[in-house]
Amino acid sequence: MTKKTAILTGFVLVKFVLQYVLISPEYDLHRDEYLHLDQASHLAWGYLSVPPVTSWISWIIKGLGNSVFWVRFFPALFGALTMVVVWKAIDELNGNLAALIMGATGVLFSVLLRLNILYQPNTLDVLCWTALYYVLIKFINMQKAQWLYAGAIVFAVGFLNKYNIVFLLVGFVPALLLTRQRKLLLTPHVLGAGLLAFLLILPNLLWQYNNQFPVLFHMKELAEKQLVNVDRGAFLKAQLLFFLGSLPVIIAGVWSLLVYRPFEKYRSFAWSIGLTLGVFLYLKAKDYYAIGLYPIYLAFGSVYIANQLQTGWKRYLLPAIIALPVLSFIPMYQVAFPNKSPDYIVSHRDTYQKLGQLRWEDGKDHALPQDYADMLGWKELAAKVDKVYATLPGNTLVLCDNYGQTGAINFYTKQGIQAVSFNADYLNWFKLDEPYPNLIRVKEAENSRDELHETGDFFRSSQAADSITTPFAREKGTTIFVFTGAKIDIRHRLKREIDETNNKRR
């Protein structure tokens, strides 16, 4: 093993260790993770919420036993691979060992530590952005068709994971046209690579077409309920914080693309970051959509700085620059990760509030960061539903208000429950082959007041059996209602509700 390989291996090991220790065992999985994991039982070329790649990874996790260890493993893996790709990019740019260590440190001690805690498409999205930028560097250097086709594959994987990667091309292609490297677009194999990418993503495009393009409904709903609360100033502030300790390196990377002669052929990267950020700002995108932009600029900046500080007194600045991300991580360790109990966070509210961590998608401040509140109460809910379910004879339908409740019950159940909902992808996963004499209805607190009256008329017996009591859980107060002895075949009402919901989405 070479010295470089040994150092890189050390960085990867540290990455994996940190991802497992930066989350307290007091927290359950996140509500989004339960939906993604449930997709393993319903493989398809598309979903209402995400493209299909996440379901394929979930299928692997399910085959490995569906344990929390493996749920945590894959985000950590994608974060580690992002670091490896940046390392390879620095090597391609002829960076020395100091540059390699600088780049790896910048990736390791960054927002990716927070992002890679959760099993969501965002983790693979950042890896795909970084890998596609790396492939573009290789193609600019070598101008061999194989790199165009490699880029097509990376883009297709990224697209089938999260449509966000389209914005990479939205920013990079116009940027390429602004430089001398525009001639690369005339390479004969550009069309071939484009065709390959199209063929790889075609099954998902056909799924979207056959399902009336639910992605458009999802984007409309996102814009109306979440993006409307996005503040452009807060978006820009977040960009500065994502790689805070490495911010000088990223800035140096963009600057080097404009002034450093060895990087002249990569100048399109300088315009690309501005154009892509401009598009995100215009669309009022969530701040984390842009995270995939930055790792490759760590590569440029690391090589540039290491080359500029090789001799004289300047070489003593290198250790300081390399240490900056580590030093910035130390205070962030206290507030940026779910490694503190909910009680601790509530008792230190001012600290979290000043950093904007208590602001949710509704634009308001709450007791905990939204992600943390979304990681509480799920085991309690599943255990209580299991307990009720075990007492009911015959078929029982478990119907929930949202995908978090549904997925959590299905993940933790000891009774083999397959809960459903009219929310998200669960709308398409109802099993209505047999009648249901019993119904367990899981209702959010704000929607539960009239449930006994509204649904109870269709059953001989009804009661509120239990509720979530976990403090600070976003689902606190969610109530479990039990209805037995159906007077009618409730499948007819369910089918009507499914049709109505689908019609709204169209």
Instruction: Give the radius of gyration.
Output: 25 Å
Please count the helical segments. 23
Question: Any low-confidence stretches, pLDDT <50, length ≥5?
Answer: none
User: Beta-sheet strand percentage?
Assistant: 5-15%
Q: Spell the H/E element sequence.
A: HHHHHHHHHHHHHHHHHHHHEHEEHEEH
Helix/strand class: mainly alpha
Helix content: 55-70%
Counted beta strands = 5
For the biggest β-sheet, the strand order reads: 2-1-3-5-4
Shape: globular
**What is the residue-averaged pLDDT?**
92
Distance between the termini: 57 Å
Main sheet: strands, sense, barrel:
5 strands, mixed
Can you characterise this structure?
Helices cover 58% and strands 6% of the residues. It has helices at residues 3-21, 31-38, 53-63, 68-92, 97-108, 112-115, 121-142, 145-161, 166-177, 189-210, 214-225, 232-242, 247-259, 268-282, 295-308, 317-335, 342-347, 349-354, 370-373, 378-389, 403-412, 451-456, 491-505; strands spanning 396-400, 420-421, 438-443, 459-467, 479-486. Helix 4 packs antiparallel against helix 5 and helix 13 (247-259) packs across helix 14 (268-282). The longest helix is centred in the N-terminal third of the chain and has 25 residues, at 68-92.
Descriptive key words:
506 residues; mainly alpha; globular
What would you say about this model in short?
This protein has 23 helices and 5 strands. It is mainly alpha-helical and 506 residues long.
